[in-house]
Amino acid sequence: YKIIAQASSAVTRLVEVVKAEQGKIAAMMESMIEGVVMTDRDYHIVAANPAARAIIGGDVNENLTIFDLIDKFKNTFDFKEKLEEAIKFDKMLTLDGVILGNKYYQILVSPVKSNIGEAKGQTLGGVIIFHDITHEKEAERMRNDFTSMMVHELRSPLGNIKKIGELMKSSKVLEDKEVTQEYVTMLYESSSTMLNLVNDLLDVAKLEAGKFEVSKRPYNLNELALDRIKFYTTTARDAGIDLKFFWDKKISSELPLDPDRVRQVMNNLLSNAFKYTPKGGSVSVECFLHKAGEAVDQESLALGFPWIQGSTNKTSALLPDSVVVAITDSGEGITPEDIGKLWNKFTQFVSVVRKGEDNKGTGLGLVIVKGIVEAQGGTVGLGSKVGTGSTFYFTLPL
Question: Which residues sit opposite 397 in a β-bridge?
Answer without folding.
Answer: 322
